[in-house]
Write a structure and sequence with these properties.
With 572 residues, the protein is α/β, with parallel strands linked by helices. It has 5 domains: 170 residues, 3-Layer(aba) Sandwich (Rossmann fold), CATH 3.40.50; 62 residues, Helicase, Ruva Protein, domain 3 (Orthogonal Bundle), CATH 1.10.8.60; 118 residues, Zinc Finger, Delta Prime, domain 3, CATH 1.20.272.10; 70 residues, no CATH class; 97 residues, GMP Synthetase, Chain A, domain 3. The chain has 25 helices and 15 strands. The strands form 4 sheets. Strands 2-3-4-1-5 form a 5-stranded parallel sheet, covered by helices on one side. Strands 10-11-12-13-14 form a 5-stranded mixed sheet. A 3-stranded antiparallel sheet has the order 9-8-15. Helix 6 links the parallel strand 3 and strand 4. Helix 5 runs parallel beside helix 6, helix 9 packs parallel to helix 11 and helix 12 packs across helix 17. It is flat, with a radius of gyration of 38 Å.
Length: 572
């Protein structure tokens, strides 16, 4: 008999041998035991997780001489024929290459006849989502009224591409990707049966490279056996698969922790000289940072960590060097770097830039620490009225993880927006209405009170809106009612045609002449007034900023300098 590779030799022959798919195997075993086997199944999931294997085991269980039984004997003629792929009653079709309507018509003719020697005829359609629309419609009629003793099993990696009418007539089982622990356990078991001496580190590398597919892991094990023989060391497996040594990942983490750009860039140079695939290194770095993050969040003993027991202490020690926020930021930077390596030319440059971003990201102070410093500082008087603009020099701008910005604006202090007095030609005394101070210009406070009273008498809702105004100004034939920026909504409600007309009639009657009325935001006038005041006090405000302990702390931390000082209204 010709040589069989490990993946074929150790293909599961019973439901118990399927790794990690208990939710599927238990359901199928119970269906066989209770004689409730459906006429159509959909097995979906990633490659190499056992979809087609489960379909073959189902066929054996249904056609075993001692069955139907959840445990096929594997010794009878039917079981051996199905395992060897020579059974006339188990039809396997690759739907990727036999996807047309003619092939499905042939299949429909074949299933019309009773099984040749078995109890049931089983049709296995691999990659069933590749069927054309016409072929799917042709298959649909058969699924709707299936011939007696015919079972359809459709295996697919993209179940969403199957037509809904087929999905609604089938039982759907999703095969999950295998965990790191499940793959390593199966590899160790097979290596022992094959008398292979393989180091735990080599098993871990193969399991990580398989990415949840046991068949891929067994293929890699076969490749390592051909390269190394019956003794498979970790170093040779890494060399074979292009995986960088564990020391390189530790060196990267150490360089980030110490902020050493020289050491990080030296890694890229070494990889380039050795001819290693830089994108493979980036993906290994992503997996390594993920392990560190899991170790930091869940502890080094968590089952979520894809590492062997002897690697976990080193992971815990490295994870302790960073906070959760740092590791999350590193993870995001590496994901972006991997995308750049895949889509853009010159991978060395992009990997170097990604490592430099990691170095700079580690220098940023945590957000909580900066907020604590700001809260502990005592702002000096007068600072609340202004905004300082500083040019960041050195490590980066505050609160920017990637440190990409060359300048940042920091607002110092927290104060409500002030309603500056209207720029008046003839300033008048402030009027009081319901205990609220209102600025007037060109109109007397008695006239304002009379207008408000008349509005309240005619339409109370409009009167309440007018009551929110902070200043009144009569300029020629135009009466302006000013509202502070936080009361913009009231101004917009007054701007309605009906409201303005009612205000115009009442105001014209009280003032004894025709006027037009408009609602405005006090921001416009306040900006003009504050601009003139800011011009005369810029130097004084700058000096206050320079003396303020919070500003000095921020400048010292981020290596910046104050380049411009503006009042808050000017910034707006």
């Amino acid at each position: 008999m010709s040589y069989q590779v490990i993946a074929r030799k150790w293909r599961p022959q019973r439901f118990e041998d399927l790794v990690g798919q208990q939710h599927v195997t238990e359901t199928l075993k119970n269906a066989i035991k209770n004689d409730r086997v459906a006429h159509a199944y959909i097995f979906s999931g990633a490659r190499g997780v056992g979809k087609t294997t489960a379909a073959r085991i189902l066929a054996k269980a249904l056609n075993c001489v001692k069955g139907p039984a959840p445990q096929p004997c594997g010794e009878c003629g039917s079981c051996k024929e199905i395992a060897a792929g020579t059974s006339l009653d188990v039809i396997e079709i690759d739907a990727a290459s036999n996807r047309g309507i003619d092939q499905i018509r042939e299949l429909r003719e074949m299933v019309r006849y009773a099984p040749a020697s078995s109890r049931s005829k089983v049709v296995i359609l691999d990659e069933a989502h590749m069927l054309t629309g016409e072929a799917s419609n042709a298959l649909l009629k058969t699924l709707e009224e299936p011939p007696d003793r015919v079972i359809f099993v459709m295996a697919t990696t993209e179940p969403e591409n199957l037509v809904d009418t087929i999905r609604s007539r089938s039982q759907h089982f999703h095969f999950r990707a295998l965990t790191f622990a499940e793959i390593t356990g199966r590899l160790e078991e097979i290596a022992q049966k094959e008398n292979l001496k393989i180091e735990p580190g080599a098993i871990a590398v193969i399991a990580r490279m398989a990415e949840g597919s046991l068949r891929d892991a067994l293929s890699l094990l076969e490749q390592a056996r051909a390269y190394c023989g019956d003794t498979i060391p970790d170093k040779d497996v890494r060399e074979l698969l292009g995986v960088v040594p564990e020391d390189a990942l530790n060196e990267m983490v150490s360089a980030i922790a110490e902020g050493s750009a020289d050491r990080a860039l030296g890694l890229v140079h070494a990889f380039q000289k050795e001819g290693r695939n830089l994108q493979h290194f980036c993906r290994q770095a992503i997996r390594h940072i993920r392990n560190l993050l899991i170790a930091r969040v869940c502890g080094p003993d968590s089952d979520l960590i894809a590492a062997t027991p002897d690697q976990r202490p080193a992971l815990a020690k490295a994870a302790a060097l960073f906070g959760e926020e740092d590791l999350t930021r590193f993870f995001q930077i590496l994901l972006q770097t991997d995308d750049d390596l895949r889509r853009k030319p010159d991978p060395r440059v992009h990997l170097e830039m990604g490592l430099l971003r990691l170095i700079n990201a580690s220098r940023l102070a945590p957000l909580e620490e900066l907020l604590a410093e700001l809260k502990s500082g005592a702002p000096s008087s007068g600072i609340n009225d202004g905004v300082a603009r500083s040019n960041a020099q050195g490590t980066g701008a505050a609160f920017r993880p990637a440190a990409r910005a060359s300048a940042s604006t920091a607002t110092v202090g927290t104060s409500a927006a002030r309603n500056d007095a209207i720029l008046e030609k003839n300033p008048g005394a402030p009027a009081k209405s319901n205990g609220k101070v209102v600025q007037v210009s060109g109109i007397t406070e008695e006239q304002v009170a009379e207008i408000k009273a008349a509005i309240q008498g005619q339409q109370k809702f409009l009167g309440e809106l007018v009551e929110q105004g902070s200043a009144w100004e009569l300029d020629g034939a135009e009466l302006r009612i000013y509202f502070s920026p936080d009361k913009r909504t009231f101004a917009e409600m007054i701007e309605g045609r009906e409201s303005l007309e009612r205000l115009r009639v009442i105001s014209s009657k009280v003032l004894g002449r025709a006027v037009r009325v408009c609602a405005k935001l006090a921001l416009v006038a306040a900006a003009a007034a504050s601009a003139s005041r800011a011009a005369s006090s810029t130097q004084e405000l700058r000096a206050q900023f320079e003396r303020d302990p919070m500003v000095r702390s921020m400048l010292q931390r981020f290596g910046g300098k104050i380049s411009e000082v503006k009042r808050r209204q000017e910034e707006s």
